[in-house]
Specification:
478 residues; alpha+beta; Serine Threonine Protein Phosphatase 5, Tetratricopeptide repeat; 3 domains; two-stranded antiparallel sheet; 23 helices; 8% strand
Amino acid sequence: MKNLLSFVFLLFHLLLFAQNGVKSEKELAKNFIQILQTQNLKNLEAIAANAEIYQLFVETFKEKSKKEIQNILTNNKNSLSRKFQNIFHYFSVLEIENEKITIQKISKPEELYLIAPNYYQIPLQISLQGITDTIFLEAYKHKKRWYLTDFTSTQSIPLQNILRKCSKYSVEQYREILKSYWEQKEYNKMLIIIEKLRLIGIEDSETLYYEGLAYKATGNTHKANNAFRQAYALAYSQETDPQIIFELFEFYANASYYYDAYLLGEICINNNYQIAKVIPQMLNLLEKERKAYTPESTKLRNSPSFYASYKKILDMALSKVTSLSDKDKVRVFSWKAELDMEDEKWLQAKEYFLKALAIEPANFDFLYELAWIENETQQYSKALEYAQKAYQIKKTPEILAEMAYSKKNLNNCQQAITDYNTLFAMGEEFITASKLKNRGDCYRMLKNNKLACADYQKVLQMGENDDELRNWVKKNCK
């Protein structure tokens, strides 16, 4: 009971002193040394109470149990004498901006630290919004009176400012503890530190990022996503560590949040941060999104939103292509070429297919596309060169058609006829009006009008609307 009385008495007395501030507090405190210069112990008798108040305290509580004292402090202050009620009035100094600190414990008297002459630190354990922590209040002595420096102002002081100044650790120390807990996989302890930082007004993108990591590690994906989204939003309004931007990017990339991942990836690329990791992941996302939302046979331009993202990311990747692996260079070059093909920019497409082919010289798809482009632009010798290389790799109907078309236009008519015959033997689906006409042209050039007529007549029967061809058939075919 004696210890409890001493505790409550000291609490009252500290709070009483808190209200008796003087204007010169800043001047009196200017010699405050932030790092404790000494551990000289001072007995709490140095903070001597008015004898009358002490006697009043003893008379009021000496026969009360701990539970009864707590009930009076909590629910029945009006039952006390007026003088005592005036003392309790000063509890309000710890109720600032409708947030209440509950003081649970004042440390032992021997833990009162002398910082400088007549200047002390008093450690208190507090509970606020369910979070328990230690704060260090500062008291100084002036003309035989004692004051708590943080509560002497007549103006309202934000609670967070008091907690930040008096907390056991600085903001940076809390951050280091947070990172240490992350490395130790102490996820619940991380969340406690984050709440402490939040109580002292720290809720920046870095803190929210670690909160997201903690929730993600404990399987709470919903809270992890909320924390990451808040961190992501703050990243645009605060100066943010590039590492955090990168980590947020990776989270959104792994979760397939395409839009957010693209924006964060763009920030990383613009800041030349982790480019060798960011661009490949963005390419993976593009590939995944394309498969999910764009049918294979559909042109990208038919999906304007995706087309814009696709083109923008490829342009960014091209600007940093020297930082990429050969595998990723090939993806960037070939995708850019395909995009140019959609826009019928044959020469630009050719340029990028050649860059991709230089890395993968035996790539059938690149050889086929180059053969097609060269035929389209009437560069038949180059077209045949690419087509023959491709045909050695894979004997497909498509590349056989390109090879036959090149030979026909190079006047290698007999070889072209052989290729068309091989193609048509692969299946009726490969017998088209244009290919039959090409074979008919070869027969005609070889002056084999009988076989030319046979092909031309089939072409007309298939609905080909070619007046010149029709007139030739009328004139030369019986």
